[in-house]
Amino acid sequence: MNIVLTTLNAKYIHTNLAIRYLKSYVMPDYEPILSEYTIKDPILNIVADIHQKKPKIVGFSLYIWNIEESIKVIRILKKTNPELVIVAGGPEVTYDYDKWLEKVPEIDFIAIGEGERTFKQLLDYHAGKIQLSEVQGIAYNIDDKLKITAPGPKLDLREIPSPFRFPEDVPHLSSRVTYIETSRGCPFSCQFCLSSIEVGVRYFNRETVKDDIRYLMKNGAKTIKFVDRTFNISRSYAMEMFRFLIDEYLPGTVFQFEITGDIMRPEVINFLNENAPKGLFRFEIGVQSTNDLTNELVKRRQNFEKLSRTVTMVKEGGKIAQHLDLIAGLPEEDYDSFRKTFNDVFAMRPEELQLGFLKLLRGTGLRIQAEQYGYTYIDEAPYEILSNNVLTFDEILRIKQTEDVLEKYWNDNRMPRTIEYLVSEVFETPFDFFQEFGTFWELSGWSRIGHQLQDLYTRLESFLLEFGKADMEIVQSLMKIDYLAHHTFQPRHIWWKDDFDADTLTGIERLILNDAELLERTVTPTKLTERNIRKHTFITPVAIRPNETNENEFIKEDGYLVTFFCRGQEPQFHFLAKKLMNA
Questions:
Q1: pTM above the 0.90 mark?
Q2: What is the pLDDT of residues 490-518, one digit of tens each?
Q3: Is the alpha carbon torsion for 251, 256, 257, 262 positive or negative?
């Protein structure tokens, strides 16, 4: 009996953990084939690939990001082989399964909730080992009537076999994200999240998890992301795993966690700051909103003061990058309130700030309460809201424009010095900068075309010239530093025009060559001479003196920025005051 387990991932680098759990659970009785695609792959190519495997049963793992494309695949597959048995599972079809069976009659069975045991029983049924009535946790139609079987007891996660030991996965471990699960369930009740529906938290066997991590690292996994909804809900468990990962550290491996910031104990953070290798861990922290009423309405318990303490302590430690999440469109959070939420969180300067928009997921409390809060939303996945009783569609569009430039100019870390100056000294608040620039970006048509690194600089410059309130000498100087900081060798192109003469340039070069102390502390591929200095340095006028100990501080002073390049190392900056040239 040929069986295919498949899904459409959002990106090629992603892997699907669910279908691997299904495969490991049904082995050795059955040997499913894992077939992963992306939502960008041509539908007919996916259908052809699955069809050529000659399956009798195909199981689909369905989510909001792949449901619409997956339905197209399912319908064509069924046309090519009407006898094919289609099994659907995953969070997108677990709820409203009756509507899905009606909308997509090509689906034969929907697995409700955890799928491992249900899928195994379905295979046993098709193998003639049990009756259909014995399969737990399925929905299906028979004679145009909906049939549902009760789910069985929750699985003992300690007994589920490892989903990571398939030889076919090994060649891809180094180039894809590996997802790992050490627990299921969430202790919180956030009404916008599916995880709130399952009460309680269950854990997998700790030693098995550790063995899996050792196996993954040994076979080249570079990015391992824990999908536990709240990794640090148990402090003792989190500490045990942190210690283990530090002890087993292999350079080049990154572990990513979703943590709850306000329950992170200071002693845990101190331990990580003192012992974790830099870059080993990455934290995702869901803030969502700092509006107390909003958090109360969505049943979200959050102490923002403690969360801020956690984020600040982690940032000061300099070991762990942090990704903070916001959700626009939550109940009673109007435009001004969201502006405050954004500024509250941006004040902590997280390495990344993700601005998301509320999606009314099937099965969540907010979807049930949609009418109460005046929500209008897209009927098809991902069910993103269009407006509510305090937020108009026009305001949502303005926030979306903010999201675009936030991603390009802050999260991508293209020009940290420049943006810090603008949000601190030029605009009333950080949100105002990103929002006004975002609107300018959209009206200029840049959201519909591509961009290279230097385009980001020229477009920001165009906006600020139009804005008219920034000291452009300072801004352009900071932009030059940020631009050069992204190069490990002399840039082939610059976005600005230098207009100082050849004699001035030669004079600066002589000053550099005569400064023995400067040359002593500067790393270059070879000793600098009059013949090679232009190969390994770049000199440009600036109107500021950078602070050597704090890249976000400077003094306004005319001079020249000398950048030394050595391939494989970050560029080194030296400021030469203009008055020295005139002395």
A1: yes
A2: 888 898 988 778 888 888 999 899 888 88
A3: positive
